[in-house]
Protein 1
Amino acid sequence: MIVISNRLIRLFEVFLGGGIKAIAFFPFIIIPTTTKINAVLINHERIHLRQQFELLLLPFYIWYLIALKRKGYISISFEREAFKNEKNLKYLKTRRPFAFLNYL
Ligand SMILES: [Zn+2]
């Protein structure tokens, strides 16, 4: 479910830093009014929703925050999987469970 909210994005930016274009927070994809929505963006966030579901939500968020602090955004396995496959709009149909482990 897509939610358009600048206020929610600002709340996440307190924890994650500024410049968020969109964020997946199961079962929502939250997008600020400044972001142009397209299929690739939604696919990227849907990959994160799948990752979150597989890790039963809370462990995902903890893992993500620790990895963000230690490695930086672009090196997080969740992000590496999402960026590598976001343009493949059929990716989630063929993706193996826990595929983010291949990007550690
Ligand atoms: Zn991402």
Protein 2
Amino acid sequence: MSLWQDFLTNRGKAIHKWEHYFPIYERHFAGWRNRSLTFLEIGVAKGGSLAMWRRYFGPLARIVGVDVDPRCARHEEGGVFVRVGDQSDKGFLQSVIDEFGAPDIVLDDGSHKMGDIRAAFEFLYPKLPKNGVYMVEDLHTAYWLEYGGGVDAPESFINLAKALIDKLNADHGRGAVPPDAFTRDTFAMSFYDSVVVFEKGQAWRKAATETGGARGGRP
Ligand SMILES: C[S@@+](CC[C@H](N)C(=O)[O-])C[C@H]1O[C@@H](n2cnc3c(N)ncnc32)[C@H](O)[C@@H]1O
């Protein structure tokens, strides 16, 4: 069953998602189904999304939800774990990693405030394994003042992500942008309406290569 079908036929705990996210989830998460993975969702609310992820990823998946609201602890069930804390609290996030290991996938559906999104990303992204995926959703708030956003706001996560495009390409920047760990460890960044996705991956060699010869049939 596709995730979209699962969502539409859900009769269990409430799930709160924008409809156009489902093709994005499938694009970035489908390859992880029925594999052993740790999936961390920031923002538990009524618990329905954690249960959905468990159904989607299958019996080898460990689904971990974090939420600042202690009432969310009741959403623990088989294969689904909930820890209560603030996504901007590095000590709390470290305790989650100490308990469950670094997550393979992070989905930030938490406070949607710029400072919180950034704090969680800056702490967690470097800890993801080499093929990890980090997705931030509901980034329409990056344009909203009450969430610390604004089209020119330096704290906007969209503006942070725009700057990270230069880090992704820093090996070709002729010194203008110093390459760093993000350059080394990031394979791709994807932008959608309200969603940004970072895929980790290391290119051990970046080389432009020509194969075949002029007389070998190339025009
Ligand atoms: C949009 S809801 C999550 C919805 C859920 N993932 C779903 O799909 O049904 C956002 C959740 O983030 C939690 N939250 C708000 N601020 C937070 C913070 N600083 N750290 C962790 N969780 C936070 C709220 O308590 C709320 O339950």
